[in-house]
Amino acid sequence: MFSLFNKLIISKKIDFRKGEIWMFGTQICLIPPDVYFEIIKDLEKNNNQQFIYDASFKSAKNWFAKVVSSTKKKSKSEQIELVPKIFELFALGKVELLEIDLTKNFFRVGLHNSLTAELFGKHNSPVDFQFAGYLAGAFSFILGVGVRCVEKQCLSNGAEYCEFIVSVGESNV
Ligand SMILES: [Zn+2]
């Protein structure tokens, strides 16, 4: 991740100016994990996972369009390869493409050491609805069709790592 970070700084894809951080033409802000966790935990407690998923979906779809334009990656395969690299910059865990089936628009993605799951601890349902929204948004942009993402197994439910299924369909958490 650090070598990618360095490359992005050198190529000015990440830009620090006047108290701001810009990455691929979008301003980002860094918030401490406990602040992030309080927000996520409260929304989850009140059954608002869909709100986080939808907001993450929209954000990732727009952001990925800028990333693709900035990196000039034209083919779907090249853009899909960007997914783990780009999403690791969010520092939510190590991202791995486990299965790619372009004929069915079906993908399995792994997230190792999920920060969100570690913050939640043991929980009775998957907790990475934000990351699921990011994946759905990015793949929706890349494939040009409606895409949903479901977290099939989660570290917070006792799995070794989190696993997400991305497929064509209505985008619900
Ligand atoms: Zn998870």
Quick structural gist:
The chain has helices at 2-10, 33-45, 49-71, 76-88, 115-120, 129-143, and strands spanning 14-17, 20-23, 26-28, 94-101, 106-112, 147-153, 162-168.
Description of the structure:
There is one protein chain. This protein is an alpha+beta fold and 173 residues long. The protein is built from six helices and seven strands; from the N terminus they run αβββαααββααββ. The strands form two sheets. Strands 4-5-7-6 form a four-stranded antiparallel beta sheet. Strands 1-2-3 form a three-stranded antiparallel beta sheet. A hairpin with a 2-residue loop joins strand 2 and strand 3. Helix 3 packs across helix 6 and helix 4 runs antiparallel to helix 6. The chain is globular and about 45 Å long. The chain starts with a helix and ends in a 5-residue tail after the last strand. The mean pLDDT is 90. Bound molecules: zinc ion.
Secondary-structure map with pairings?
Blueprint: H1 2-10, E1 14-17, E2 20-23, E3 26-28, H2 33-45, H3 49-71, H4 76-88, E4 94-101, E5 106-112, H5 115-120, H6 129-143, E6 147-153, E7 162-168
Antiparallel strand pairs: 1-2, 2-3, 4-5, 5-7, 6-7
The structure holds zinc ion.
Give the averaged pLDDT, no decimals: 90
Strands of the largest sheet, in order across it?
4-5-7-6
Gyration radius, rounded: 16 Å
Return the CATH architecture. Answer: 2-Layer Sandwich
Question: Which H/E pattern describes the elements?
Answer: HEEEHHHEEHHEE
